[in-house]
Amino acid sequence: MTETFDTNKIGLAVRQRNIIWRRHAFERMLERGLSRSIVLEVASNGEVIEDYSTDRPTPTALLLGWKGKRPVHVVLSIEPDGEVAIITAYEPSLDVFEPDYRTRREA
User: Fold this and answer.
1) Where do the domains of the chain lie?
2) Which of 13, 26, 64, 90 lies in the 20 to 30 Å Cα band around 47?
3) Alpha-carbon gap, residue 25 to 31, rounded angstroms
4) CA 56, CA 80: separation in Å to the nearest integer?
């Protein structure tokens, strides 16, 4: 699979504050105790661990980053105009992910 998500482009969009915050993201961030700064740090510097290039209306990606020892996942998309849309953010569960927080457990 070709990686659609250029982390340099994501980082540039975040630094330029070309960000769309989806309501769902804000609601989940509040529930999960994640600040905007943590989410932006992961969006800027995180590792793309899942690339959903076929998602519509826009391709999305799952990024992994860290706040200290706390793993954080951010799901985002790059809109056609170059803006980054933050879709959701959460602390991954070991029920779903392996201890590396990159690999999904097999069902």
Assistant:
1) 7-90
2) 26
3) 10
4) 12
What's the CATH code, domain 7-90? 3.30.2310.40
**CB burial class (10 A; 0-12, 13-18, 19+) of residue 54?**
exposed
Phi-psi label, residue 97: left if phi above 0, alpha if psi -120 to 50, beta otherwise: beta
Q: What is the pLDDT of residues 3-51, one digit of tens each?
A: 567 788 888 899 999 999 999 999 999 999 999 999 999 999 999 999 9
DSSP character at residue 64:
E
Locate 41 and state its tokens: 């740090």
pTM greater than the 0.85 cutoff: yes
